[in-house]
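Possible regression after last week's pipeline update?

I re-ran a chain I had predicted before the update to compare outputs. Posting the input and the new output here so someone can diff against the archived version. Not blocking, just want to make sure nothing changed silently.
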Amino acid sequence: MTTTHRERLVGGYTGRLLLSASLGWAAIQAGRLVLSPLLPAISDDLGIGATRAGFALTILWGLYALLQYPSGRLSDALSRKTLLVAGLSLVLVGFLALGAAPTYPLFLAGAAVVGVGAGLYPTAARALVSDLFVERRGRAFGLHTGSGDFGGVAASGLAAAALAVATWRASFLPVVVVLAAVVVALHRFSDERYVVARPSLGLATTVRRLLADSELRLLLVAYVLFAFSWQSTTGFLPTYLLDGKGFDQFVATVAFAVLFGVGMLAKPAAGALGDAVPRTLLAPVLLVLAAGSLGVVVAAPGPFVAVAGVVVFAVGLMAFPPVMQSYLMDTFPDESAGGDLGAYRTIYIGLGALGPTYVGAVAETVDYRLAFLGILACLATSGALVFYTTR
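New output (post-update):
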């Protein structure tokens, strides 16, 4: 699927759709990531421990992962617009359910609906961005993926405001409003039709084709380790700084906001840099930078050093996806790019979804320090694999 429209990052047909798709992704990320700083309050309200809280995040991320391939494959066979609008509508319902859940089982049900809706959205959105931009693909991917970090910054503000003036439940209402606005925008701006059909998913064929390529196999392992690290960190960084390091709530909130605030700037910059220098050299450097700076966070004796470590960590962690995803989209065939990326994302996000449960379990049985040292090892190994595979 291609476009004949001029590649404008701002304004015009491509710019309007890039903005709409990116705002939808920002809203999804804000709603999902606001759960991290709210976990202590949610746990107290629902009477659950760290392992059960981590399992709720694993349910959300696990279902999100399972829907990546169907999303990409269906967006290839039907239309991007169909998947984007359907996904956002389900996410909207799921966040309303999360905010109203009076018990842990109903909270899990709300997390499951969010996971399904969110799973339908991002692969189709990235495929749409790839359709719209060729020469400026790296920049477009940087802006689009960076919007998710804007959502992370917004999540910190939402959590702080909700806990200050209401309860954790109120944090989802602004997200629902934005999601509704994006549904309307995508419906009006896209010139695609809604298509409803039951095409064959062909998952086995796609997976066999991707795994037959030795380079793609090793890159998949590297991306699994990265996704495991990303989900572990974003799920438990505030709780680690509070309970593991003994810092106060203000430090935890600032660090979480910094993580995504830096990412919001780093992703567009990395996307543009990836258009100018070899992505195969840039990607492993970013992962090694993330691993080293996470070590600084773990060893930090005080909050200033810890937050400074988070700043550098965010550069490496958050700048990696637009660089690597642009490389993958260049590698996949045009006619199956959405499905191929979806299959890839199903595997690496699905396995990565075990990260929050891992952190919660290790923290309860040993401590948070050991859990985060395990994340550091995953990032370092991922960087080595990318370097070895693409050298």
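Follow-up from reviewer: compared with the archived run. The chain has 17 helices and no strands. Marking as no regression found.
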